[in-house]
Fold this sequence. Notes:
Elements: H1 2-20, H2 24-34, H3 39-60, H4 67-90, H5 93-116, H6 129-145, H7 148-159, H8 163-187, H9 193-217, H10 222-243
Helix pairs in contact: 1-2, 1-3, 1-9, 2-3, 3-8, 3-9, 4-6, 4-8, 5-10, 6-7
Amino acid sequence: MTEILVILIILFGAFIRTVFGFGDALAAMPLLALIAFDTQSATALIGITSLCVAIPATIEYRHDINWKVIIRLVLGSILGIPMGIALVKFSSTQTIARVLGIFLIIYGSYNLFKIFRGKATHLRLHSHWFDYLFGWISGVLGSAYNSHGVAVAVYGTLKNWTAKEFRGILQAHFTFTGIIVVSSQMASGFWNLEVVKIFLISLPLLAVIIWLSNLVSRKINTATLVKYVYGMLFLFGVMLLIKA
């Protein structure tokens, strides 16, 4: 019964990721913890399924991706990973979760309020150095709290990416960082026979979910996607505070 619940949660996370471009870990990890599934195994499963979702999405949106931005984001992420690991070792993960949660609640609710008042944010970040900065933040959050997509999602809203750019850049970033993450998890002993078994069972179902999710995502335009993203950031902020 536990394996069935784990597979359903993984598929739910994959649906969230495919439709909105991010959020699978923040949606699935608390649910996996709720059924008392092993944390390391859960992290390994989310890591590999995220990579499986990201690769086809990267191929699909390849013409909408600014690859120079991806290179800068990934380089920033690589630089941020050691900082995230240091935070886990020498700081409280609860503190990290609270700070991130509060920020997401304030940022998400503020922008939703402005949108519904008809005053959407028009801030533009033109410097290439912001790519490195948000990539670095992504690396810190990814290695410390498995939340590397949040920083890039926030960055996408500040850069006013179109829906295709948003999904494409996010998924390409996830693909390259995901390869590093999954390799690190394998080397760290996160993988076991149970992880392999559940992943192999989930794989054909994952393909179906990705196909269905893509049908849904194509019906969401840029303006609607931005509202959903802000709403999800607010919701994930609440979830992080509750978990902390």
